[in-house]
Beta-glucosidase (Streptomyces flavofungini), 464 residues
Amino acid sequence: MATTRAPLPRFPRDFLWGVSTSAHQIEGAADQRGPSVWDAFTALAGTVKDGTTAAVACDHVHRYRDDVALIRDLGVGAYRFSVSWPRVLPHGTGAVSERGLDFYDRLVDELCAAGVRPVPTLFHWDTPLAVEEAGGWLSRDTAHRFAEYAAVVAARIGDRVPKWITLNEPAEHTLLGHALGQHAPGRQLLFDALPVAHHQLLGHGLAVSALRAGGADDIGVANSHGPTWPASDDAADREAADLYDVLLNRMFSDPLIVGRYPEVIAEILGAEVPDLDGDLKVISAPIDWYGINFYQPTKVGAPRAEPTPTEFSGLTLPSGLPFSPRPIDGYPTTSFGWPVVPDALTELLLALRDRYADRLPPLLITENGCSYDGLDDQERISYLDGHLRALHRALEAGVDVRGYFVWSLLDNFEWAAGYAQRFGLVHVDYATQRRTPKASYGWLRRELLAQHAPGAGDPGPARG
Ligand code: GBH
C-alpha cells in the first residue's frame, strides 16, 4: 500500500539526478571479454553466498537499449555506468578489443540520443586477470597500465562523455578485496594491503592527467564514506573508531584533497614507497568534483579478545584486528542488515566541509540506495526520501553538492552476496531477464517531474 508522503523539497535547478550501475554487476556477456579477477574468484567454491557468477547477470550487453529506455523514462539527466577494463583490453594491456570498445560506443550514442548524460567510471573492481597475474594492484606498474587503459577509452568515447569517474571505492576494494579477502582477488593481507590503496590513488592521478591530455575537463572519483561512531566515550573505543575512520574515510580523501596521508598511513607507506611526496603530487592533481557513495554509518569499538573470526553484517572478520565493529541498534535495517540512518548523510557532508573547508571540491553523491525484496518497495521509497531530505539539509547548510545518483537502476550481481540482495529501482527476473519497474521507480519519476515543473515551489537553496 502506497503511503502519502510530502513531496521532496526543491533542489537547485541544475542539480544532476542520475542512476548508477557497474559493468561486472550487470553486463554479462563474459564470453565476449577477457577474464577478470571476479571471474576467477567466483569460480572458487564458497566465495559467493548463493554460488552464482556474473557470467550472464542482467545480460545488459544485449539489452542496453531497453535499459537506456528505462533510464530515459525515469527522467534522470545522467547515467553512471562502469567500463570493463577486460572488455576493452582482454589482456589488460596490448591488443584492444574492437568489439568491446564498440559496445561502449553504442551505449554512449544510445544515451546521448535519449538525452541522458553518460558518466563512465573507469574502474569498478574488475581488474583484468592478466594484470592480477602480473602483480595486480600490489604492483606499481598497475597504476601505469590503468592510465594507459583510461587513454584508450577516452580516445574512443571521450568526444561524447561530459563527466568522468576514475575509480570506484578504492577503500572497499582495498579492504574487502585485499585486506579481508571477502571480494576478488581474495587476498587476506590485513595492513600489508596498504600498497593497493596507494597504487589505486597513483593510478587515479595518472589517469586524470591522461584524460586531461585528451581534453576532458570534468573529472572526479567515487569514494565510500560514512560517519564512524565510537562505541562509547572510553579512550580505547575512541582510538579504535579513529583508526577505522582513517582507513575508511581519510586514507583516500586526504591525499586526493590535501595531498598527504594521515600520519599512521604515511609512516607505513613512507617506508615502502621510494618517492612518496612525488606520488602525492600526482595523486592530488586537482579534480573537478569529489564523489561520495553513502550507505550507512558504522559503530566501532576497541578490539575484543575474540579468539576466532567473527561474523558482522555478512562479513567474516579475522581475529586480531585493531578495532571491532558493533551493531547500530534502534534503526530500521535493509535486507542486508544495514541500519537506515538518513541523518548520518547530513552529518557526513557537514564533517567533510568542516575538515577540508575551502579545499573541498564540489561534491556529487555517486551512490546511495538499499536492498529490499519485492515490487511494492515502500521501504526503498522511504530510504531514498529520507536520504534526499538529509542531503537537502546539507545544501541548506551551504555544502556544495551538485547531484545525486541512486544505486541502482537494476537488481544486479551484488558481489559476494550474489543475486540475493536486490538494490534496483527496476526488478530483474533472472530466469527471463524481464525488467519490471518497482514502486520506487514510479515514486522517483513523479518526484523528478515535480522538481522540474516550472514555477512550483521555491527555487532551492542558493549555491554557497
Ligand atoms: C557499493 O559498495 C559498491 O560500489 C557497489 O558495487 C555495490 O553494489 C553497492 O555499494 C551495494 O553494496 O556491515 O553495516 O558496516 C558498498 C560499500 C561497504 C557499504 C560495506 C556497506 C558494510 C555495512 N559498502 N558496508 S556494515
In short: The CA atoms of residues 151 and 210 lie 6 Å apart. Residues 235-258 form the longest helix (24 residues). The longest strand covers residues 117-123.
